[in-house]
Design a protein that fits this description.
heterodimer, A: 112 residues, mainly beta, Immunoglobulin-like, 5-stranded mixed β-sheet, B: 115 residues, 4-stranded antiparallel β-sheet
Chain lengths: 112, 115
């Protein structure tokens, strides 16, 4: 079992839809949770960064962490074609060298 | 404020050759991490440098080596290239530990093709 699992997709939605991207993990030591967006042939761009359980909102994006079930979600409201990208979740544990572990990413396609 | 810069952007090498990739961290960051990303996969951690020392290493062979300079910039060296080394190589800079300004920031990467 991989430490971080994501459905690779692609997930195809119409413009304006609410998108739910999900990630599960196995390491209970993970305390920090990051979401990255990666456009084709580009480096990942940090979208959200949260600590422990709960919700965090930033504009159209909401990150949700449920540590009891080891489940992470990223919600995108009013999705736009420019949101079409791969979304990577990257949790990391507290202590040590703080190296995030990346999932393989979910490909999202928002069509006009 | 310059972000993370990587050079070159693209590179084609022959099997068995050696390659050096370069990274300049974001201003204010002192920690540099290197990743390999194969097509359709997430980034895989190679190693991290802090205070000019290798702080942690992922599951990569000794053919992969690195260096960090006093100005925090870093190099990734790969010897005896294999076809399987073809990938996007990403550099990320950060502070050494999470906080409000942890900012694990990636460059645009170097696309290496081994033929």
């Amino acid at each position: 079992q991989k430490e971080v699992e994501q459905d690779p997709g692609p997930l195809s939605v119409p413009e304006g839809a609410i998108v739910s991207l999900n990630c599960t993990y196995s390491n209970s030591a993970f305390q920090y949770f990051m979401w990255y967006r990666q456009y084709s042939r580009k480096g990942p761009e940090l979208l959200m960064y949260t600590y422990s359980s709960g919700n965090k909102e930033d504009g159209r994006f909401t990150a949700q962490v449920d540590k009891s079930s080891k489940y992470i979600s990223l919600f995108i409201r009013d999705s736009q074609p420019s949101d079409s990208a791969t979304y990577l979740c990257a949790p990391l544990a507290e202590g040590g060298s703080y190296i995030p572990t990346f999932g393989r990413g979910t490909s999202l396609i928002v069509h006009p | 404020d310059a972000g993370v810069t990587q050079s070159p952007t693209h590179l084609i090498k022959t099997r068995g050759q050696q390659v050096t990739l370069r990274c300049s961290p974001k201003s204010g960051h002192d920690t540099v991490s290197w990743y390999q990303q194969a097509l359709g996969q997430g980034p895989q951690f190679i190693f991290q440098y802090y205070e000019e020392e290798e702080r942690q290493r992922g599951n990569f062979p000794d053919r992969f080596s690195g260096h960090q300079f006093p100005n925090y910039s870093s190099e990734l060296n790969v010897n005896a290239l294999l076809l399987g080394d073809s990938a996007l190589y990403l550099c990320a800079s950060s502070h050494p530990a999470p906080g409000a300004d942890y900012g694990y920031t990636f460059g645009s990467g170097t696309r290496l093709t081994v033929v």
